[in-house]
């Protein structure tokens, strides 16, 4: 009888240990609603890259709102660059100066909106078309304060770094519109 109780105790402890281990491993697996099987391959549909980029935008918009150039640039890679529609390449240093000059003219933002299109991931890079719209109170070259609305679509590419996704490149900039006090604006007027 003692041997039977010993065997039952060992089996009970073993079953509990297996159950606890299975439960802890399960916490690392996305829940069933975030998993799909395609061609026999288990795919995580929790969209971790999209979530990371959405969080990136939250930090980026906050940094613009507070006019924190250091925080803005910390969200960009050391080799960050932009390519304008005419093919001009702006380096990270160029963009830091441009960002500082832009923010110097801003009184405050009324709104910032960034719509992220389909994200394509290739290795440590992720890119998407982004539809951006900002409305802000801004000083023009003559120093007068105006409501400025701008929107554009551009491709943005992020690079996965050791600590987070950071903006690596902006290109394919198109469909840009600027309104000043609700009227179309051209810089060379």
How many domains make up the coordinates?
A: 1
Q: Please name the CATH architecture.
A: Roll
Oligomer: single chain
Briefly, what CATH class?
Alpha Beta
Helix content: 25-40%
- Rg for CA atoms: 25 Å
How does the helix and strand content classify structurally? alpha+beta
Strand content: 35-45%
Summarize the helix and strand pattern as letters: HEEHHEEHEEEEEE
Number of E-type strands: 10
Shape: globular
Report the CATH topology name.
Nuclear Transport Factor 2, Chain: A
Distance between the termini: 100 Å
Q: Main sheet, how many strands, which sense, barrel?
A: 8 strands, mixed
Keywords:
189 residues, alpha+beta, Nuclear Transport Factor 2, Chain: A, 8-stranded mixed sheet, two-stranded antiparallel sheet, 4 helices, 10 strands, 33% helix
Please write out the topology.
Blueprint: H1 2-26, E1 35-38, E2 41-44, H2 48-65, H3 69-74, E3 76-83, E4 89-90, H4 92-105, E5 106-116, E6 120-122, E7 125-139, E8 145-160, E9 165-180, E10 183-184
Parallel strand pairs: 3-9
Antiparallel strand pairs: 1-2, 3-4, 5-7, 6-7, 7-8, 8-9, 9-10
